[in-house]
Design goal:
Porin; single chain; eight-stranded antiparallel β-sheet; 2 domains; mainly beta; Nuclear Transport Factor 2, Chain: A
Amino acid sequence: MLLNTSKPYFKNKSLYILFVLMLFTINTSAQNDTLFFDQNWKNTIKESAIYYRTKPVKIKTKNAIGYKLAATDSLYIINDYYLKNNKLQFEGYSEDSEGKYLVGKAKWYDENNNLLDSRDFNYKNYNKSKFEFPKWPILYLDYKIASKNQFIGGLEFCLDCESKNKLFLGLGFGVTSYNHTYYGLPDLHLSYNTEKFLFIKSGISDKHAYALAGATLLNFLDLGFGYSQSFNKDKIPVINGFTFGATFRFSSNQKVYTQIKIM
Protein backbone atom coordinates (compact mmCIF):
# COMPACT_ATOMS: atom_id res chain seq x y z
CA MET A 1 0.00 0.00 0.00
CA LEU A 2 1.35 3.41 -0.92
CA LEU A 3 1.77 5.94 1.89
CA ASN A 4 0.23 9.33 1.48
CA THR A 5 3.19 11.67 2.10
CA SER A 6 1.01 14.71 1.82
CA LYS A 7 -0.47 14.14 5.25
CA PRO A 8 0.39 16.60 8.03
CA TYR A 9 2.47 13.95 9.83
CA PHE A 10 5.10 13.89 7.13
CA LYS A 11 5.06 17.66 6.74
CA ASN A 12 5.70 18.13 10.44
CA LYS A 13 8.47 15.54 10.39
CA SER A 14 10.18 17.30 7.49
CA LEU A 15 9.98 20.62 9.27
CA TYR A 16 11.45 19.04 12.42
CA ILE A 17 14.40 17.59 10.49
CA LEU A 18 14.97 20.94 8.78
CA PHE A 19 14.90 22.71 12.14
CA VAL A 20 17.48 20.30 13.63
CA LEU A 21 19.77 20.78 10.63
CA MET A 22 19.54 24.55 11.00
CA LEU A 23 20.46 24.35 14.69
CA PHE A 24 23.42 22.08 13.90
CA THR A 25 24.64 24.46 11.18
CA ILE A 26 24.36 27.48 13.47
CA ASN A 27 26.18 25.67 16.28
CA THR A 28 28.97 24.51 13.95
CA SER A 29 29.38 28.01 12.56
CA ALA A 30 29.57 29.50 16.06
CA GLN A 31 32.29 27.01 17.05
CA ASN A 32 34.30 27.87 13.93
CA ASP A 33 34.05 31.57 14.78
CA THR A 34 35.46 30.99 18.28
CA LEU A 35 39.23 31.11 18.85
CA PHE A 36 40.78 29.06 21.64
CA PHE A 37 44.06 29.86 23.42
CA ASP A 38 46.35 28.03 25.83
CA GLN A 39 47.92 29.57 28.94
CA ASN A 40 50.54 31.34 26.78
CA TRP A 41 47.88 32.76 24.47
CA LYS A 42 48.84 30.48 21.60
CA ASN A 43 46.08 29.15 19.35
CA THR A 44 44.98 25.67 20.32
CA ILE A 45 41.99 23.29 20.31
CA LYS A 46 39.12 23.59 22.77
CA GLU A 47 40.17 20.52 24.78
CA SER A 48 43.49 22.12 25.82
CA ALA A 49 42.35 25.76 25.96
CA ILE A 50 42.33 28.10 28.95
CA TYR A 51 40.79 31.11 27.21
CA TYR A 52 38.56 31.71 24.23
CA ARG A 53 37.59 34.68 22.08
CA THR A 54 34.29 35.22 20.36
CA LYS A 55 34.34 36.36 16.75
CA PRO A 56 35.41 40.04 16.70
CA VAL A 57 32.82 42.29 15.09
CA LYS A 58 33.37 45.76 13.67
CA ILE A 59 32.00 49.00 15.00
CA LYS A 60 32.43 52.60 13.87
CA THR A 61 35.51 54.13 15.50
CA LYS A 62 33.65 57.15 16.87
CA ASN A 63 30.94 54.95 18.38
CA ALA A 64 33.59 52.77 20.03
CA ILE A 65 35.99 55.32 21.52
CA GLY A 66 34.19 58.65 21.08
CA TYR A 67 36.49 60.21 18.49
CA LYS A 68 37.69 59.56 14.96
CA LEU A 69 41.09 58.36 13.83
CA ALA A 70 42.66 59.69 10.67
CA ALA A 71 43.06 56.37 8.87
CA THR A 72 40.75 54.04 10.82
CA ASP A 73 37.06 54.07 10.01
CA SER A 74 36.09 51.15 12.25
CA LEU A 75 37.48 49.00 15.07
CA TYR A 76 37.06 45.40 16.17
CA ILE A 77 35.37 44.60 19.48
CA ILE A 78 37.64 42.14 21.30
CA ASN A 79 36.14 40.02 24.09
CA ASP A 80 38.12 37.21 25.72
CA TYR A 81 36.74 34.75 28.28
CA TYR A 82 37.90 32.12 30.76
CA LEU A 83 36.85 28.78 29.31
CA LYS A 84 36.12 27.05 32.63
CA ASN A 85 33.49 29.54 33.80
CA ASN A 86 32.82 31.76 30.75
CA LYS A 87 33.70 34.87 32.75
CA LEU A 88 35.11 37.90 30.93
CA GLN A 89 38.92 38.06 30.87
CA PHE A 90 39.45 41.04 28.55
CA GLU A 91 37.40 43.67 26.77
CA GLY A 92 38.58 46.36 24.41
CA TYR A 93 38.86 47.63 20.84
CA SER A 94 41.53 46.92 18.27
CA GLU A 95 42.47 48.03 14.77
CA ASP A 96 43.00 44.38 13.82
CA SER A 97 40.96 41.25 14.50
CA GLU A 98 43.90 39.65 16.39
CA GLY A 99 43.84 42.33 19.09
CA LYS A 100 47.45 43.40 18.58
CA TYR A 101 46.81 47.14 18.11
CA LEU A 102 44.51 48.26 20.90
CA VAL A 103 42.69 51.59 20.80
CA GLY A 104 40.67 53.32 23.52
CA LYS A 105 39.92 51.78 26.91
CA ALA A 106 40.98 48.20 27.59
CA LYS A 107 40.25 46.18 30.74
CA TRP A 108 41.58 42.89 32.11
CA TYR A 109 39.76 40.76 34.72
CA ASP A 110 40.59 37.80 36.93
CA GLU A 111 38.54 34.60 37.06
CA ASN A 112 36.18 36.13 39.65
CA ASN A 113 35.43 39.11 37.41
CA ASN A 114 37.55 41.49 39.51
CA LEU A 115 39.30 44.24 37.55
CA LEU A 116 43.05 43.55 37.27
CA ASP A 117 44.16 46.35 34.99
CA SER A 118 42.70 49.17 32.93
CA ARG A 119 44.52 51.20 30.28
CA ASP A 120 43.58 53.90 27.83
CA PHE A 121 45.32 53.57 24.48
CA ASN A 122 44.58 57.14 23.47
CA TYR A 123 45.48 57.99 19.89
CA LYS A 124 43.27 61.06 19.53
CA ASN A 125 46.12 63.07 18.10
CA TYR A 126 47.68 60.14 16.30
CA ASN A 127 47.89 60.48 12.53
CA LYS A 128 48.94 57.41 10.59
CA SER A 129 51.34 57.76 7.72
CA LYS A 130 53.59 55.44 5.77
CA PHE A 131 56.70 57.01 7.26
CA GLU A 132 57.27 58.57 10.66
CA PHE A 133 60.38 60.17 12.05
CA PRO A 134 61.66 58.45 15.19
CA LYS A 135 60.42 59.73 18.52
CA TRP A 136 62.49 62.05 20.70
CA PRO A 137 65.94 60.51 21.22
CA ILE A 138 66.78 58.24 24.13
CA LEU A 139 69.63 59.11 26.44
CA TYR A 140 71.98 56.16 26.88
CA LEU A 141 74.95 55.60 29.18
CA ASP A 142 77.34 52.81 28.35
CA TYR A 143 80.21 51.05 30.08
CA LYS A 144 82.47 48.47 28.43
CA ILE A 145 85.61 46.70 29.44
CA ALA A 146 87.90 44.86 27.04
CA SER A 147 91.59 45.55 27.16
CA LYS A 148 90.59 49.03 28.38
CA ASN A 149 87.65 50.57 30.22
CA GLN A 150 85.33 52.70 28.12
CA PHE A 151 82.69 55.19 29.32
CA ILE A 152 80.27 56.42 26.65
CA GLY A 153 77.16 58.56 26.60
CA GLY A 154 74.93 59.67 23.77
CA LEU A 155 71.56 59.49 22.06
CA GLU A 156 69.62 56.59 20.60
CA PHE A 157 66.69 56.56 18.20
CA CYS A 158 64.05 53.84 18.40
CA LEU A 159 63.64 52.90 14.73
CA ASP A 160 60.81 50.41 15.32
CA CYS A 161 59.02 51.13 18.57
CA GLU A 162 55.55 50.04 17.44
CA SER A 163 56.52 46.36 17.44
CA LYS A 164 57.39 44.22 20.44
CA ASN A 165 60.96 43.79 19.20
CA LYS A 166 62.86 47.11 19.26
CA LEU A 167 65.65 48.38 17.00
CA PHE A 168 67.87 51.13 18.44
CA LEU A 169 70.33 53.29 16.50
CA GLY A 170 72.81 55.07 18.75
CA LEU A 171 75.40 57.79 18.35
CA GLY A 172 77.58 58.87 21.24
CA PHE A 173 80.98 59.87 22.49
CA GLY A 174 83.10 58.67 25.37
CA VAL A 175 86.55 58.33 26.81
CA THR A 176 89.13 55.66 27.50
CA SER A 177 92.56 55.91 29.08
CA TYR A 178 95.89 54.52 27.95
CA ASN A 179 99.14 55.03 29.85
CA HIS A 180 97.54 57.74 32.00
CA THR A 181 96.34 59.62 28.91
CA TYR A 182 92.66 60.05 28.02
CA TYR A 183 91.40 59.52 24.48
CA GLY A 184 88.08 60.45 22.90
CA LEU A 185 86.04 57.54 21.60
CA PRO A 186 83.08 58.05 19.22
CA ASP A 187 80.42 55.36 19.14
CA LEU A 188 77.96 54.29 16.45
CA HIS A 189 75.86 51.19 17.09
CA LEU A 190 72.72 49.18 16.34
CA SER A 191 70.97 47.18 19.05
CA TYR A 192 68.15 44.71 18.40
CA ASN A 193 66.18 43.96 21.58
CA THR A 194 63.56 41.23 21.54
CA GLU A 195 60.43 40.73 23.64
CA LYS A 196 62.13 37.57 25.01
CA PHE A 197 64.50 39.80 27.05
CA LEU A 198 67.48 39.17 24.77
CA PHE A 199 69.51 41.54 22.63
CA ILE A 200 72.28 41.59 20.04
CA LYS A 201 74.38 44.68 19.41
CA SER A 202 77.14 45.72 17.05
CA GLY A 203 79.07 48.97 16.98
CA ILE A 204 82.07 50.81 15.69
CA SER A 205 84.44 53.63 16.66
CA ASP A 206 87.46 55.09 14.88
CA LYS A 207 89.64 52.61 16.81
CA HIS A 208 87.72 49.33 16.89
CA ALA A 209 84.54 47.35 16.13
CA TYR A 210 82.59 45.23 18.59
CA ALA A 211 79.67 42.81 18.88
CA LEU A 212 77.74 41.86 22.01
CA ALA A 213 74.82 39.61 22.94
CA GLY A 214 73.05 39.09 26.22
CA ALA A 215 69.99 39.84 28.33
CA THR A 216 67.95 43.00 28.66
CA LEU A 217 65.85 44.15 31.59
CA LEU A 218 62.81 45.64 29.81
CA ASN A 219 65.26 47.53 27.54
CA PHE A 220 66.19 49.75 30.48
CA LEU A 221 69.40 47.81 31.18
CA ASP A 222 71.32 45.64 28.69
CA LEU A 223 74.03 43.30 29.97
CA GLY A 224 76.08 41.38 27.45
CA PHE A 225 79.33 39.68 26.48
CA GLY A 226 81.13 39.73 23.17
CA TYR A 227 84.35 40.62 21.43
CA SER A 228 86.17 43.78 20.33
CA GLN A 229 88.53 43.94 17.38
CA SER A 230 91.06 46.75 17.12
CA PHE A 231 91.65 48.24 13.66
CA ASN A 232 95.36 48.84 14.25
CA LYS A 233 97.21 47.35 17.20
CA ASP A 234 100.17 49.64 16.56
CA LYS A 235 98.13 52.80 17.29
CA ILE A 236 96.91 53.64 20.77
CA PRO A 237 94.52 53.21 22.37
CA VAL A 238 94.28 49.53 21.58
CA ILE A 239 90.81 48.09 22.36
CA ASN A 240 90.82 44.38 21.70
CA GLY A 241 89.61 41.11 23.18
CA PHE A 242 86.64 39.68 25.05
CA THR A 243 84.28 42.43 26.11
CA PHE A 244 81.64 42.96 28.80
CA GLY A 245 79.13 45.75 28.28
CA ALA A 246 76.30 47.44 30.21
CA THR A 247 73.92 49.98 28.71
CA PHE A 248 71.31 52.12 30.50
CA ARG A 249 68.45 53.85 28.62
CA PHE A 250 66.41 56.83 29.82
CA SER A 251 63.35 58.01 27.90
CA SER A 252 59.89 59.50 28.52
CA ASN A 253 58.59 57.41 25.61
CA GLN A 254 57.20 54.29 27.27
CA LYS A 255 57.18 52.38 23.96
CA VAL A 256 60.96 52.19 24.26
CA TYR A 257 60.59 49.71 27.10
CA THR A 258 59.16 46.20 26.96
CA GLN A 259 55.67 46.18 28.44
CA ILE A 260 54.56 43.31 30.67
CA LYS A 261 50.99 42.40 29.78
CA ILE A 262 48.89 41.21 32.67
CA MET A 263 46.68 38.28 31.70
